[in-house]
Design brief:
single chain, 188 residues, alpha+beta, 2 domains, 5-stranded mixed β-sheet, 5 helices, elongated
């Protein structure tokens, strides 16, 4: 019982699954985020959020195949208009598939330690798998909306707020005197 209290919620127990190929279990779990999950300062799952995990564990000859989906809210800043990104329309959803090799299996003996996951006392840890999938799925230049136009380079206003008639008249300084004189002649 004390083992369950200290075990990370990312860790799944496969001992009930057994080692007979073809056995499977489906699990659902909400896991709190305890550290940065994403691209800090750009877009990430906030530490106050939970990751919703849907996991299927399949016993295969060499270990346990974990397949699933992780869903969580994200927050960040739009790379074009600098508006905050958050809310229900901004969700991270990643799919993952990872083999966790049985101790002393051929897969464990023939692969590098970081190439494949490993079962330790019948337990598997999905946190590194989900973290890797999240970092790869999150955009390096997030947008508040797919058609975000960004900021006006002259005044810094958001194009979405400024409207289609917004413009700044810029005159080449070499022609400024001529333009002033031309406008004066037309006024008189």
């Amino acid at each position: 019982m004390s083992e369950n209290r200290t075990r990370s919620p990312w860790v799944f127990d496969t001992r009930d699954l057994g080692r007979r190929p073809g056995s499977s279990q489906t699990m659902h779990r909400a896991v709190p985020v305890t550290g940065p999950l994403g691209l800090e300062g750009v877009i990430a799952v906030p530490e106050s959020a939970e990751v919703d995990l849907e996991v299927r564990l399949d016993s295969v000859i060499e270990g346990v195949l974990a397949t699933g989906t992780a869903t969580a809210p994200v927050t960040g800043e739009c790379s074009r208009c600098l508006e905050p990104i958050s809310g229900p329309e901004h969700q991270l959803e990643v799919e993952f598939t990872e083999l966790f090799a049985y101790p002393e299996s051929t897969t464990e003996e023939t692969t590098e330690e970081d190439e494949v996951g490993h079962l330790v006392d019948g337990l598997l840890d999905l946190e590194p798998v989900v973290r890797d999938a999240a970092v790869l799925a999150l955009p390096s230049a997030p947008l508040c909306t797919p058609d975000c136009a960004g900021l006006c380079p002259d005044c810094g206003g958001r194009w979405a707020d400024l409207g289609p008639d917004h413009r700044h008249e810029t005159i080449d300084p070499r022609w400024a005197v001529l333009t002033e004189r031309f406008h004066t002649d037309q006024d008189g």
